[in-house]
Structure formats: C-alpha cells, structure tokens
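$ run holo --ligand "zinc ion" --emit tokens
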Amino acid sequence: MAKSAKTGQRVADEFDPSGSEALPVVSARNVLSAPVLVLNLNYVPVNICTARRAIVLVGKGKAELLDKHSGEVHTVTAVFDIPSIIRLVYLVKRPYAPRKMSNKEIFLRDHYTCQYCQIKTQELTLDHVIPRRQHGPNTWENVVAACPKCNLYKAGRTPAEANMKLMREPKAPQPNPYRMLQNYVILEQWIPYVPWMIAG
Ligand SMILES: [Zn+2]
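-- output --
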C-alpha cells in the first residue's frame, strides 16, 4: 500500500483515522472528482474533466493516460491509476468561441498601450480609427486603445486627417484555446501543456 499512502492519508484524515489499511470505498468518490486536463490529439487542451470521467475514457480506449496523480483507486475488482492528464486518441474539432469585443479585450490586445503615442498606461480610452461620425464601424479592425490626450486631439478625424500614425493595423485577436482554463487552478504537472497566453 506504499504507493497509495499519500492518498490513503488524506482519505484517512477525512473519513477514518484508523482505516488506512485499504482505501475505503468512500474514498473513491473523493479521489474520482480530482481534476484532469484533457488534451486533444494534437496536445492542445480541450477541457478539464473529473478523474472518474477520465478513467472511463481511458478504459474505453478513447484516451491515453499521460500523467497521473499520486495514489490509486481500488475497487472490488480492479486498481486504477488516478489520471491527471489524458490525451484523446482522436482529434476533436473545437470551434473556439470568438472573443467578444469589450474595452478590456481591446486594451489587452493593444497591450495597454496607446496606439498613437505608444505610451503604456492604465488610463485608456477607446478610439474609433474611422470616427463614428464618419460611419466607422464598431469592430476589432476599427477600434484601438488610445490615451485620453491622443483621443482628444484626434477627435472626429481619421488618423490621416489628424496626421497621426497607428502603431499597427488593428485586427481581431486569434481565438485563444487556453482561455477555457482561466477559471481553473492550473496544477503543476499541467504546465508543460498550458503555455499561458493571457494577451493572446
Ligand atoms: Zn496617446
């Protein structure tokens, strides 16, 4: 039982201090809800599932085990490793949700930098490159971060009319497949598969 001592200990603390001989059945419930990083065939994260779900996927041959939590799950008839990372054996096509345009997303895309004078600041405004009054659309390609000074100076003019130059042509950011992980605690063993891309 040495291998499962760690898990056994945690379970024992919670359920039965004297019952560290074998993992009691009740412990399985706890361990089986451990988070598992699910990778696509191409190693891009797809989602997070529970260890229970991961064991089923591996058992059915739909995924392979890449890394495991310490410990094992003992059932009446079998012993399972507790997955930490699995990889699907087929490619899941995932249309990543396009980013919704918002002030914050524009500022992130533009790295909190005024796209005219290149000053880096938290005090930013949104500037329509082709002004609204000239029917400039409210799109990723026509909205940039601008400091209040530049925005005020540019006013209702195009950059050409105001003799101002954009740092770069504004574009919609690439969908970020790692975004779905933002609300999760990232386990240490997942990090090699999760190059963090906040600013996309
Ligand atoms: Zn500026």
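-- notes --
The radius of gyration is 25 Å.
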